Amino acid sequence: MLSRSASNLFWLARSVERMDYVARLLDVAQRMSVLTTSSAVDEWRSALIAAGVEDGFDSLHGATDEAAVVHYLTNEPSNPSSVMNCLFQARNNARAVRAQLSIDVWEAINGAYLEARQFTEATYGRDNFPIFVDWVKRQAVVFNGAYSNTMLRTDSFYFLRLGTFIERADNIARILDVKYHILLPSFEKVGGSIDYYQWAAILRSVSARRSYHVLYKGRVVPWQVAEMLILRPEMPRSLRSSFEQVMQNLDILAGRYGGRCGAPHRLTGEMLAKLRYSSIEEIFQTGLHEFLTETIERTLVIGKEIDAFYLS
I want to staple 119 with a disulfide (CB 3.0 to 4.6 A). Which of 10, 123, 187, 289 is the partner? Predict the structure, then answer.
């Protein structure tokens, strides 16, 4: 496969995953901002930080408020991580490799694009916001289901999977880090009322509230939420599950290209070993923020190494 085609497939999947993630961030911020125990400014600011776009936002806006953040993260042309830009980037990448996608995959992404072109500013307004978020999440589910169920297990499929899970790992680490290190007010003790609602909101953001109660009977406990989203292999959005998928697809691609392994395989293997053999007690003792910061940095490096090894 041409490296250019592999790159288009990789970034097609990453763009769809990021689109879904940003919509979920906005959903959490909107829900938390209406709680009387929460600072609305902090909640909307946290969405910008978790999306990694606070500098770009600050260059355009003097103050952080709901309307400005929602616009910037949904439909701001200058923000490459806005929901609509992610969708448009995904569609451009899909069009470039249309012959390597199944009809269902192309129709999923192109149909979402055509529908989004009919949106107006009212689509992103407060009254329609829950409908918009549900629409975005549904498009991501349709896309992932289409390529998982209709594409041949060839290079095209494995580069899509690689993009999906490297992006997912980065997103989970970011939202957990923002919650624990930035979002929780300094005066609020861990386990207090604000803390409880914020961790519950994170579970909702990754569609894991019911899964949490299956794995952990009882109320939401911060270290159990962290364990579930970092270390539990049963949770499809956990860091461990995401890196296991990255490793699996790297191994398959290495086998298809003469068994050649490189820096992406080594770095992913190191990260996966750490996730497999760490306990949540050890992570909290050494510092959850430090652990997540290192994970974000390593995920960025792995993405760059994948680009250098396969996509350039």
Answer: 123
* Residue among 309, 228, 311, 308 nearest 275 (CA): 228
Distance CA 179, CA 202 (A): 8
Residue 191: pLDDT over 70: no
pTM of the model: 0.91
Question: Region 242-261: what's the mean pLDDT?
Answer: 90
- For 280-296, give the DSSP string: HHHHHHH-HHHHHHHHH
Residues with Cβ within 8 Å of 69's Cβ and at least 6 positions away in sequence, in order, are 26, 29, 44, 45, 47, 48, 57
> What ranges do the domains of the chain cover?
1-150, 153-312
Closest CA to 88 of 161, 147, 15, 23: 15
User: Which among 97, 92, 33, 93 is positioned nearest to 65, based on CA atoms?
Assistant: 33
CA 226 from centroid of its chain's CA atoms: 16
Distance, in Å, from the CA atom of 33 to the CA atom of 268, rounded to the nearest integer, reads 37
